[in-house]
Write a structure and sequence with these properties.
By secondary structure, this protein is mainly α. It has one domain (about 1-105). Helix content is about 90%, strand content about 0%. It contains 4 helices and no strands. The chain has helices spanning about 1-20, 20-25, 30-45, 55-105. The chain is rod-shaped, with a radius of gyration of 22 Å. The relative contact order is 0.10.
Length: about 110
């Protein structure tokens, strides 16, 4: 049981590290492998009996849902961050184009 708690803790810490370090969440292989691992772990926790959780099914289900939630939330956060960056790039390009047009109109 103690080993399981340590493994779960390490997995949740790895999730936080991947989402906090920009270089890691930008790397598709690292990000997608972590999210795949989250989904597989979440489903496994829900389907496979865990020693020590026989009398505490709510804890087992909560643990499985946490991993599934982390996967979906991380994907949402990454998409939001990438979309916001793209919007900022587009806005900068629009401003640059407006400045070019304003310079031509003055001449």
């Amino acid at each position: 049981m103690t080993n399981l708690v340590v493994v779960v803790g390490l997995l949740l810490v790895a999730n936080q590290i991947v989402m906090r370090v920009e270089r890691l969440w930008r790397s598709s292989p690292v990000f997608l492998s972590m999210q795949t691992f989250n989904v597989v772990t979440g489903i496994a926790v829900l389907l496979i009996p865990i020693p020590g959780f026989e009398n505490f099914m709510a804890g087992k289900y909560a643990l499985g849902v946490i991993f599934l939630f982390r996967a979906f939330w991380n994907v949402h956060e990454r998409r939001t961050n990438l979309w916001n960056e793209k919007q900022e790039e587009l806005e900068a390009e629009v401003q640059r184009q407006r400045a070019l047009l304003a310079g031509r109109e003055e001449s």
